Amino acid sequence: MSDDARSANHDGEALESLSADERRFPPPPALAEHANVTEATFTAAAADDLAFWAEQAGRLSWATPPTETLDWSGAPFATWFADGTLNAAYNCLDRHVEAGHGDRVAFHFEGEPGDTRTITYAELTASVCQAANALTELGVKAGDRVAIYLPMVPEAAVAMLACARLGAPHTVVFGGFSSDALATRILDCGVEHVITADGGWRKGKSSALKPAVDEALERCPDVKNVLVVRRTGQETAMVEGRDVWWHDLVESQPTEHAYETFPAEHPLYIMYTSGSTGKPKGILHTTGGYLVGVAYTHWATFDLKADTDVFWTAADIGWVTGHSYLVYGPLANGATSVMYEGTPDSPHQGRWWEIIDKYGVTILYCAPTAIRTFMKWGADIPARYDLSTLRILGSVGEPINPEAYVWYRKHIGHDRTPVVDTWWQTETGMHMISPMPGVADGKPGAAMRAVPGVSVAVVNDEGVPVSDDAAGYLVVDKPWPAMLRGIWGDEQRYVDTYWSRFPGVYFAGDGAKLDADGDIWLLGRVDDVMNVSGHRMSTAEIESALVSHPKVAEAAVVGATDDTTGQAIVAFVILRSEAGDGGPDVVAELRTHVAKEIGPIARPRQIMVVQELPKTRSGKIMRRLLRDVAENRELGDVTTLTDSTVMDLIKGNLSTTS
Ligand code: 6R9
């Protein structure tokens, strides 16, 4: 980094270390030779991005092919392919059967207790038709919103696709969320129909879902009926006249259903995501552009060969990653996927590797938090399984620390597979920044560059693009097909949140840095940036320094108010199992390590060794809650945690260690 660049972006040495990793991993020659995306793809897309997307629209089967690609005259409200019509479920199902792929497996389902189901495209199409018929019988019509609150079972995908077939936008609420979170979402988008289950399996135990629905519905008088999947078989109260069992209503329906076609801009789904303030935002996605975007990126980023690959997105369906890369992208492409219901350590810590071995998974897509957990458990566990089928590894959800990247590649990817670090958001619908596996020389920790057809920039406070080798804010400066079309019921908030900070471009809310090659490194949310004695430092970067210490598996860093320095760095770390309790000097050792890696200014004021960290469904650490702990405050809202007992554990642990 030049001195000029350093003083210009105020981030000083701190932001430098994240990109100090010099390791480079070129694509394996055989992969590059047959790669779906080559350097020529980038050139063509950059020459005419609209022509590029119009061509990608040809991946779908349209009832009326679109003649128009983008209408941006009402910016920031876009329409894509607006005069085209299609049915999303037809594109994900029937057309593959019609093309002779009815016997191809759509999902290898693996339940946590060990039950399995192999579902072909023909079978999935039949189930979705039955569910569409059942929903019609319950009165669901095009345009009605349907809430889906299910565990990771095939019926979750069936329910989503049945809604899509009817043109009824779904809103999937993560099964780990509370009744409160469910009620808020139902009320916000005026849901009248709910699909749920008696319960799901988690860590070897059945955990009930239906009671949370009953509780939520006390506040939602407009809900007319609840369709209940039997998953665990546990005792379940049913409300007469409102609740009906899936196996009673759906499984007796005809396996054919004549679908309607809808305009490309017909709403497909609403997914709630938390903002930095205020109530969750209902992010709206529509049909044509979204499907084009996810079908293209699923094919491009993962170099998908639909007839031979076995693809596994190990993410919950209640997260956008589950929508785009477990359901819509893979099915639009006619791919074979694995769907796993449970946690990675049920019944043992090798469960994921056992699944990869069993189904011959070729592409694995998961979050850095999972990778760091596996690091904590030790490399000897995956070493017991045959993972040789894997050819591409993906990461999503948070910046992947260089240490975690290298570990993932080495111990899971037998030191051969490219790692694609995909940056995107609920709002973007599809991958936006990612290395293309047959093109990029992978850099541990970098998301690298925009995918073909997408245009991003890193800008300074004034909205001016920074030069290479500097940090700033990530923006998207051209519309893209899978972009959100708004926030449900709040147009103004859409404009204010995303399009006002820098007029004319989309503000993602993430900090990013360009390195000397012009490659992009994500630095975490802008609100995760700390200011310590006037130095701006990203939490991601100090976490990476901590994780690069051999005793540390996972770290979360927050800025706590400090009388002297403005903010002070407080770190929470989980040690690797090999490190035992870390020894008496572990805290001092780690503080020194960070000072050495980044500089004395980054030395944490306090480091607390903990057993667990509070995480959201997508594996993001809830730093807000850790800040409450670091500042000795009452805890804020914990309803979006996957496991709300974690905070009790952390607090209990602190009172015994301090
Ligand atoms: C897909 C998803 C979006 C936020 C995003 C950013 C973070 C996601 C990332 C990443 C660095 C990556 N994020 N992928 N940060 N590198 N590869 O996660 O959607 O839940 O809406 O979160 O996640 O901060 O702004 P969502």
Automatic annotation (TrEMBL):
<dbReference type="Pfam" id="PF16177">
    <property type="entry name" value="ACAS_N"/>
</dbReference>
<protein>
    <recommendedName>
        <fullName>Acetate--CoA ligase</fullName>
        <ecNumber>6.2.1.1</ecNumber>
    </recommendedName>
</protein>
<feature type="compositionally biased region" description="Basic and acidic residues">
    <location>
        <begin position="1"/>
        <end position="13"/>
    </location>
</feature>
<keyword id="KW-0007">Acetylation</keyword>
<dbReference type="GO" id="GO:0016874">
    <property type="term" value="F:ligase activity"/>
</dbReference>
<dbReference type="InterPro" id="IPR020845">
    <property type="entry name" value="AMP-binding_CS"/>
</dbReference>
<dbReference type="InterPro" id="IPR025110">
    <property type="entry name" value="AMP-bd_C"/>
</dbReference>
<dbReference type="InterPro" id="IPR045851">
    <property type="entry name" value="AMP-bd_C_sf"/>
</dbReference>
<dbReference type="InterPro" id="IPR011904">
    <property type="entry name" value="Ac_CoA_lig"/>
</dbReference>
<keyword id="KW-0067">ATP-binding</keyword>
<feature type="domain" description="Acetyl-coenzyme A synthetase N-terminal">
    <location>
        <begin position="42"/>
        <end position="92"/>
    </location>
</feature>
<comment type="similarity">
    <text>Belongs to the ATP-dependent AMP-binding enzyme family.</text>
</comment>
<feature type="region of interest" description="Disordered">
    <location>
        <begin position="1"/>
        <end position="29"/>
    </location>
</feature>
<dbReference type="InterPro" id="IPR032387">
    <property type="entry name" value="ACAS_N"/>
</dbReference>
<dbReference type="InterPro" id="IPR042099">
    <property type="entry name" value="ANL_N_sf"/>
</dbReference>
<feature type="domain" description="AMP-binding enzyme C-terminal">
    <location>
        <begin position="541"/>
        <end position="620"/>
    </location>
</feature>
<feature type="domain" description="AMP-dependent synthetase/ligase">
    <location>
        <begin position="99"/>
        <end position="488"/>
    </location>
</feature>
<keyword id="KW-0436">Ligase</keyword>
<dbReference type="Pfam" id="PF13193">
    <property type="entry name" value="AMP-binding_C"/>
</dbReference>
<keyword id="KW-0547">Nucleotide-binding</keyword>
<dbReference type="Pfam" id="PF00501">
    <property type="entry name" value="AMP-binding"/>
</dbReference>
<dbReference type="InterPro" id="IPR000873">
    <property type="entry name" value="AMP-dep_synth/lig_dom"/>
</dbReference>
